[in-house]
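Dear support,

I submitted the protein below through the web form. The confirmation email said the job was done, but the results page showed an empty box. After a refresh the structure appeared. I'm attaching both so you can tell me whether what I see now is the final result or a partial one.
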Amino acid sequence: MRTAVGWESHREGVARLLESYAALPDGAQVRLAKPTTNLFRGRAPQGAGLDVSGLDGVISIDASSAVAEVQGMCTYEHLVEVTLPHGLIPLVVPQLRTITLGGAVTGLGIEATSFRSGLPHESVLEMDVLTGAGEIVTTRPRPGDQHSDLFDTFANSYGSLGYATRLRIELERISPYAALRHVRFDDPADLPDAISTIVESREWDGEPVDAVDGVVFAPDEAYLTLARWTAERGATSDYGGQDVYYRSIQQRSTDRLTMLDYLWRWDTDWFWCSRAFGAQHPLARRIWPRRWRRSDVYMRLVGLDRRWGIGDRLDRRAGRPQGERVVQDVEVPVERLPEFLAWFDAEIGMRPVWLCPLTLRREDSARPWPTYPLAAGQTYVNVGFWGNVAVGPSAPTAPKNRAIEAKVHDLGGHKSLYSEAFYDRDTFDALYDGANLAAVKKRYDPDDRLTGLYEKVVERG
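What the results page shows now:
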């Protein structure tokens, strides 16, 4: 069981980080030497990275005020290990265990509490950032903070503005269990009203809703899973064994999980993507070690496939058309969700897809987070889809991914940048406020030591 590492250990970790920065050759690009990744885009070969080995823990917990001091490279798995004994969790816990807090803030994390708690960066009260200039800058939400431009622009910057070394975050008090209801919708046109009702009232059929996400299995089969935190004792399900969580959504109308199992319900089978490795076959599952049923193991298998082209070779040998990898999360306004799903069925044809409602917590401006400028007061639905689509010889030009980008833009939504992107520079800057990003980068990275956002996510530098 993990415990808080304390302030002295944190200071030592920061010192090692700064020493590794100082050891870089003049003008060398700055990057992290990070052992895990949840990014789905290739990268150019990289040299030595910064030493972050001492920045992967929880510094301290103030249980009375429900606040934690956390190091930037701390995974949510380890963060939750420390907070749960206090009856606390972060306001938003992304689905995969090895996502780091700093990564979820500089990238974009989301989960089933996002309909009321926004995105992970919206629960940050203060953070220390190592800038491209090699300085540790402490920044807080506006107004009045001299570095609020860095704070506001940091979300969705993916390390192009610096790396968080310490974050003070709000926590949420929870109960030991999550009681689930899987509510079926035969017509996706009914989803916007249902989601809007839950967002506004935080209840459904008179019962409180603490978390909500959903799965669409077919054009006439969608589910919203409504979770309620509860202290009531009772039998709980175990989806780390032979049973697979996403299949249970179709098989039962109610369920009950421990809070820990609820948080990692998607990680065990990487949503439904573990089936690509045979991990959901009953015979294979019996011999697949339980400790290896987790997203970082599957991610390593994906890395091997990329390195050796195993999937492409099997497709060619079987005479199947060349596949295009379509791994994306997009946000569309809730009222446009049925239109997107209908288009997605006709043009992409991938199932299942994940749904996760989202509203921003911050409402002090029309578009309060400039690098991912969703509108305040608007409910969005994150739609996640991950797999391969057979397209034939045109696969290298990514026609399906480009079509998704165009459709999402047409619907007034945005696309997350953890995976491949294909925008031209002008379109990218228009969508992600490139002018503001460039101005903030110039202030905190005057010598351009950090790879720019466009170069990272489109050019894959």
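Response: this is the final, complete result; the empty box was a page-load delay. The chain has a mean pLDDT of 93.
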